[in-house]
Write a structure and sequence with these properties.
This protein is of the alpha/beta class. It contains five helices and five strands. It has one domain: 3-Layer(aba) Sandwich (Rossmann fold). Strand 3, helix 3 and strand 4 form a beta-alpha-beta unit.
């Protein structure tokens, strides 16, 4: 079981993702605001940061950069409709981060999360 930090400002999508990841056996802590997620990541250890890019407070790229600075082993996956932004070298996104473009099926994201967590 992995401990996942989910940062997604779309409440309905966040609830669906939480439910799917919990059903898959993961422990999920979720926030709808990047700044709130940042406050949490400073006080807890996570295996994976699953974050949208465009959010209130702090965007997902900044959240990921700061979180990886604190925990170099943290895996990062962006869930976004702006994949080109996340993949652009000038964005500053962690190089090891994966990107899953919206829209996606819940089974697809659970499978990708499981594969990412299983990778060394």
């Amino acid at each position: 079981m992995a401990h996942i930090l989910l940062a997604e400002d779309d409440e309905s999508l966040r609830k669906f993702l939480c439910a799917a990841l919990i059903k898959a056996g993961h422990n999920v802590t979720d926030f709808g605001d990047g700044s709130e997620a940042w406050d949490c990541v400073q006080n807890a250890v996570f295996d994976l940061l699953l974050t949208d890019i465009v959010m209130p407070g702090m965007d997902g790229i900044e959240l990921a950069k700061r979180a990886v600075e604190m925990n170099a082993t943290l895996k990062v996956m962006f869930i976004t409709g702006f994949a080109a932004v996340a993949l652009h070298p000038a964005s500053g996104a962690p190089k090891q981060a994966k990107v899953l473009s919206k829209p996606f099926h819940l089974r697809e994201i659970v499978a990708k999360v499981d594969r990412m967590l299983a990778a060394a």
